[in-house]
């Protein structure tokens, strides 16, 4: 990876005396092997070719040679759509390096076309044929197999040699050109490759994370996060030159389309994700309308980039839209935070990280600060950091939604119970049973209470799971409901306990017949996902007012009778409380339902 330090450039430009530095810069650059490359930008001469048609033969005429000039501040300047010609004079600092292979590195991957000419000796003879490469040409044209524009050359003796190169680019600028020993350059790229590998690995992990959330929950916000990660990965791969190298080595047009579209699509998906995460329609409707207008503008720019020419103003529009939309979403996040929507806090952090990273490269492209290749690494790290923070924000949103859903479920359960309905089975709940029973007791009306408990229900839960147990409870509740009259009440008291209120004074024979029907209906097998589930029933019967004048006493009496049935291995599966001894000293502990009521 080429490393150019702005401080180094600034130190060179401020060194005293200024005149001596300027004179040294105009002398041929002395090539010497330096592990971190030798910066040559101060030795560059250039001029702009407004015709875009000059050949190397025309450039080397006296009239055109006179146009070459040294820029005052080479690394500070606006990008522009133009053709620039550069000239560089070189000589070896060490005569022993005549056999060494050098690499002239132009740190850019976005150049449409770059042509290298020379080196020319003092007689004007070219020592090597021209080399043409760039984004408009296949990967095989790269002489050094480098993502950035690099050219191999040799100097056969310590004399002065002249190198020319022509840059045709939408983003043409003065580049931090450097010279490297080829082996040193290949070694230096390992850090960059490792950094890119870690970056792509993180983005792929975030892609998987977004895909899982999308498949599980199916919400649009997860789709936009997934698309943001995909477009960010494609944009970074384009900025680093990997799209041309690995995806479209033989189709440079495809690499160019990806390079242009990926940033715009990333910005669109990022805006949509921000709208959804921040709930702008709810918290800030006017800001939401502004973001929608930006989405339309970005979408139009993306379509134009796909089907029309690619002028620089379109890229400026995308850059400006990213900066403005980031600021707008930051304001929206602050509004959401004021509404106590806490995932917006994490969103603020992520947007702030990206804003800093984007400004580093955009401000340099506008010509406000010196440009260095390291700025793309800052932007790359900031973009990934933003997506990581966004992933955490989504987790926070999920936790908030889970809490809200749990609170809503609890509230719904309370309302359902308050209405006297059991949420699982749809029959009456404890409240739905005790209310009418209390009214009958208060009015002195007779009724009978049957308490039922499922035998073997625990083994169903343990063997087949709670979903199977719930299916048994629902089936039993529905079957019991079908066995009673319209005025009678079937209720689930909790767990695997049911109760039946038989209105009016009913004969013992009728109650016994009903009890048998209830037991047989409840014991019929239940089909669950191809499995047959079976339970038994034990039933106790208590009558008002003979077995108790209050609901707790009636439940206690029915519970004693039901427990008596459980202890009997043979005989009927029901018992009357009136048939049991009156003494309470030998009564077993109450079941959960009876104990709760008592």
Automatic annotation (TrEMBL):
Keywords, alphabetical: Membrane, Transmembrane, Transmembrane helix
InterPro entries per the UniProt record, alphabetical: 7TMR_DISM_rcpt_extracell_dom1, 7TMR_DISM_rcpt_extracell_dom2, DGC-Regulatory_Protein, GGDEF_dom, Nucleotide_cyclase, Rev_trsase/Diguanyl_cyclase
Segments passing through the bilayer: 197-216, 221-239, 251-269, 290-307, 313-337, 344-369, 375-395
SMART domains linked to this entry: GGDEF
Organism: Variovorax ginsengisoli
Name of the protein in its database record: Diguanylate cyclase (GGDEF)-like protein
Domain of life: Bacteria
Lineage: Bacteria, Pseudomonadati, Pseudomonadota, Betaproteobacteria, Burkholderiales
Region (Disordered): 576-598
Domain GGDEF: start-end pairs: 445-580
């Amino acid at each position: 990876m080429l490393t150019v330090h702005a401080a180094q450039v600034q130190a060179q430009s401020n060194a005293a005396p200024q005149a001596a530095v300027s004179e040294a810069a105009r002398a041929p650059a002395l090539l010497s092997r330096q592990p971190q490359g030798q910066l040559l930008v101060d030795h560059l001469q250039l001029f702009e070719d407004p015709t875009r048609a000059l050949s190397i033969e025309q450039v080397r005429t006296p009239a055109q040679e006179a146009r070459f000039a040294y820029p005052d501040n080479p690394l500070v300047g606006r990008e522009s759509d133009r053709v620039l010609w550069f000239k560089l004079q070189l000589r070896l600092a060490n005569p022993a390096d005549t056999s060494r292979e050098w690499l002239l590195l132009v740190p850019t991957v976005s150049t449409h076309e770059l042509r290298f000419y020379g080196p020319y000796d003092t007689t004007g003879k070219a020592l090597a044929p021209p080399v043409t490469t760039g984004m408009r040409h296949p990967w095989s044209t790269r002489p050094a197999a480098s993502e950035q524009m690099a050219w191999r050359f040799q100097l056969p003796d310590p004399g002065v040699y002249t190198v020319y190169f022509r840059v045709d680019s939408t983003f043409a600028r003065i580049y931090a050109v450097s010279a490297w020993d080829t082996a040193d350059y290949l070694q230096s790229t390992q850090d960059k490759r490792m950094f890119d590998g870690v970056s792509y690995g993180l983005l792929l992990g975030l892609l998987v994370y977004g895909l899982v959330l999308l498949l599980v929950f199916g919400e649009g916000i997860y789709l936009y996060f997934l698309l943001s990660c995909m477009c960010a990965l494609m944009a970074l791969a384009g900025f680093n030159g990997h799209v041309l190298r690995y995806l479209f080595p033989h189709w440079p047009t495809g690499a160019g389309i990806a390079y242009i579209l990926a940033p715009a699509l990333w910005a669109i998906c990022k805006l949509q994700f921000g709208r959804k995460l921040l709930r702008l329609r709810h918290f800030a409707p006017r800001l939401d309308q502004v973001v929608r207008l930006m989405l339309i503008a970005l979408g139009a720019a993306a379509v134009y980039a796909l089907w029309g020419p690619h002028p620089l103003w379109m890229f400026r529009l995308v850059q400006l839209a990213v900066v403005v939309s980031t600021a707008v979403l930051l304001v929206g996040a602050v509004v959401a935070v004021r509404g106590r929507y806490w995932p917006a806090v994490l969103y603020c952090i992520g947007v702030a990280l990206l804003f800093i990273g984007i400004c580093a490269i955009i401000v340099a492209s506008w010509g406000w600060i010196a440009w260095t290749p390291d700025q793309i690494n800052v932007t790359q790290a900031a973009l990934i950091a933003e997506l990581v923070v966004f992933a955490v924000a989504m987790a926070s949103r999920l936790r908030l939604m889970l809490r809200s859903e749990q609170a809503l479920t609890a509230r719904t359960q309370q309302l359902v119970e308050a209405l006297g309905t059991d949420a699982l089975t749809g029959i009456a709940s404890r409240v739905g049973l005790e209310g009418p029973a209390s009214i009958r007791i208060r009015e002195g009306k007779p009724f009978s209470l049957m308490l039922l408990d499922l035998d073997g229900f625990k083994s169903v839960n343990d063997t087949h799971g709670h979903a199977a147990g719930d299916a048994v409870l629902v089936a039993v509740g529905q079957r019991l409901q079908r066995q009673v009259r319209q005025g009678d009440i079937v209720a689930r008291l909790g767990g695997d306990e049911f109760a039946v209120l038989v209105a009016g004074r009913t004969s013992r024979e009728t109650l016994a017949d009903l009890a048998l029907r209830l037991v047989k209906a409840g014991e019929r097998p239940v089909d669950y996902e191809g499995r047959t589930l079976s339970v038994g029933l034990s039933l106790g019967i208590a009558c008002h007012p003979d077995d108790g004048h209050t609901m707790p006493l009636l439940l206690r009496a029915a519970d004693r009778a039901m427990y008596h049935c459980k202890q009997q291995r043979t005989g009927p599966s029901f018992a009357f409380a009136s048939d049991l001894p009156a003494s309470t000293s030998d009564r077993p502990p109450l079941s959960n339902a009876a104990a709760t009521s008592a």
